[in-house]
Design brief:
2 copies of one chain form a homodimer.
Chain A (H helix, E strand, L loop, with lengths): L1 E6 L4 H10 L16 E3 L5 E6 L4 H6 L5 E5 H7 L4 E5 L5 E8 L15 E4 L2 H10 L5 E4 L6 H5 L4 E6 L3 H5 L2 E10 L1 E5 L1 H6 L4 H14 L5
Parallel strand pairs in A: 1-3, 1-4, 7-8, 7-9
Antiparallel strand pairs in A: 2-3, 4-11, 5-11, 6-9, 6-10
């Protein structure tokens, strides 16, 4: 039986829809009263785990789930040993550098040496500033990164932006984009190579469905 | 003006009560409609930041808050450069090792070499097994650690336990306690030494209040 790891949060609804399109129903996770973290598809041909987005690659890397859906941002931050299969083209957002609207800096290259940047995405932020050869101090935070510049603890933030509403509400403006992110289909490499439980057929269906459900440009 | 960092979650209500007891009212954070992360006390003598528990020591270490309240578990996990001032004696919980009730292991020393332990508290778990001289692999997770043993990904978990309800619901039993945890008062070391904004007087009041509000043994 195939197990899939689904991410709590913003990507959950669309992730469940994609599996519904190929005949696997995990919509019980969307019931407001649901407390289960593990459910079977009603046909009992597949199982799903409901986990934090950051934990999806962990369950897939260890083979506890053969398939998973997770944002590219998480894959960049964690660099797990998983097979990257398909861009599912939903959950569009971007990893951006933002500064207070009142900041004198309009480009990262203008940041002062040893300037401070707060982020939940420590690795992404560090790699970015290293590539620019800027000696920036990254301050790791777990939430509400926008408080970094508001309190004066940091000059800027690196964070995931989708509508831009949080930035706007906090008087921050984007000055650069590290990368764009969308939901990705990932697999346990060995299960994929061995085609365990007919995994490859399911993946082809999901990829095919992904092409069909794309908005016309 | 003194700024205090308060932790979102389980410790918030009692933290706000302690500051109320010494004349500082940050209860606006408890309003269900509140979206603010930064408020002034009505007397405008102090300010409070509402942040994730793990971020409290960060704001205090960088001096953006001169005082903070946070669980000892977070201080153990992060080892920040902050002054540990007082045990506030609320928010009692313990960092425990738990295994499935069906597990053959009843003591950590029985764990197989290279056994796997899932935890959100990677450093605490690693230090504990290192002190026991056990070559255990720690699997870092962000949430729902109990899924580790349920899915078979790990032999055990290291997690914070308060009532034990989550463990029970997931068929897990505690087999050892790493340490007990309570809410702690922490301060920015330099602000504390310099008595910035009359910090030491406020701390004495909080410590005094903490002794008064303790349950009689």
């Amino acid at each position: 039986m195939i197990t899939v790891a689904l991410p709590k949060g913003a990507l959950l609804k669309d992730s469940i829809r994609r599996f519904q399109n190929v005949g696997l129903d995990f919509s019980a996770f969307l019931d407001s009263g649901n407390r289960q973290l593990q459910i079977d598809d009603p046909t009992h041909t597949a199982k799903a785990l409901l986990v934090r987005a950051q934990d999806v690659p962990v369950y897939v890397e260890y083979g506890q789930a053969q398939l998973g859906i997770v944002g590219y941002d998480v894959l960049r931050e964690k660099s797990s040993q998983v097979a990257h299969l398909a861009d599912l083209k939903f959950g569009n957002c971007r990893m951006s550098v933002a500064v207070p609207a009142t900041s004198p800096y309009r480009r990262p290259l203008e940041f002062p040496p040893h300037g401070r940047v707060a982020s939940k995405f420590v690795r992404c932020a560090r790699d970015y500033f290293r590539a620019l050869d800027l000696p920036i101090e990254i301050i790791p935070l777990y939430g509400s990164v926008e408080l970094g510049p508001i309190t004066g603890m940091s000059d800027a933030i690196v964070d995931l932006v989708s509508t831009g509403r949080t930035l706007k509400e906090n008087g921050l403006i984007e000055i650069d984009v590290l990368f764009h992110s969308t939901a990705r289909l990932i697999a346990h490499p060995l299960s994929y190579r061995l085609n365990a439980g007919g995994l490859q057929g399911l993946i082809e269906q999901l990829e095919q469905d992904s092409k069909l459900t794309q908005p016309v440009a």
